[in-house]
């Protein structure tokens, strides 16, 4: 008989399947990214009522089917509901982006314990009122690191030279790497990154997510552009929620321009 397995997780995305089923993808603490079929989910309040939605922390109970890549979802048990996302558009846009980015960065059944904890902490901070802009930037840098794509922020990716205080480094747009002036290739499109932005990137990448706020607005604005480019060098194709996030930044009176 198949063994029941339980693990905490968050829904990354869900879609209808047939008349009453749903295909749901989670990031979980013990089983990485898990995709399963929830039979009768749209009609079952007892097994899945209200738990197959974004920003709901659940305990997923499932059986693995040897002949299928899809797990058989038995039920989801509610751990906590992060209600702040339903009340604040900036928070909702940022949280939606974190979910999509996590989904795109984690492949198959890779170990996902660190990613799960990172996402859990980020969503709780957003729900608690943390400023979205620095938190999202910090999350991007931390997620790159735990996924094996840690950017070299304190030294040139080309020659390894350590950046000195006040030095301008360059973001190689196509490569998604920070390089010194000597390692810029002829004709290569680059973006200069000032010392303040480089220091902000290093701070956000090494500090806990809870300490993401408090940086200089100008440095953070440039750091956001660099982090977006670093993510774009790893993720294939556009992130739909990124456009939504940018629109909310423009519309919000408290966001960076």
Strand order of the largest sheet: 1-2-3-5-4
CATH topology of the largest domain: de novo design (two linked rop proteins)
Order of helices and strands: EEEHEEHHHEEEHHH
**Mean pLDDT across all amino acids:** 88
Overall structural class, as computed from helix and strand content, comes to: alpha+beta
Kindly summarize this structure in a few lines.
The protein is of the alpha+beta class. The protein is built from 7 helices and 8 strands. The strands form 2 sheets. The protein has a 5-stranded mixed barrel. It has a 3-stranded antiparallel sheet with strand order 7-6-8.
How is this structure best described in words?
The chain is an alpha+beta fold. It folds into two domains: 4-81, Nucleic acid-binding proteins (OB fold (Dihydrolipoamide Acetyltransferase, E2P), Beta Barrel), CATH 2.40.50; 84-251, de novo design (two linked rop proteins) (Up-down Bundle), CATH 1.20.1440.120. Helix content is 35%, strand content 23%. The chain contains seven helices and eight strands; from the N terminus they run βββαββαααβββααα. Strands 1-2-3-5-4 form a five-stranded mixed β-barrel. The chain has a three-stranded antiparallel beta sheet with strand order 7-6-8. Strand 6 and strand 7 (177-179) form a beta hairpin. The N and C termini lie far apart (57 Å).
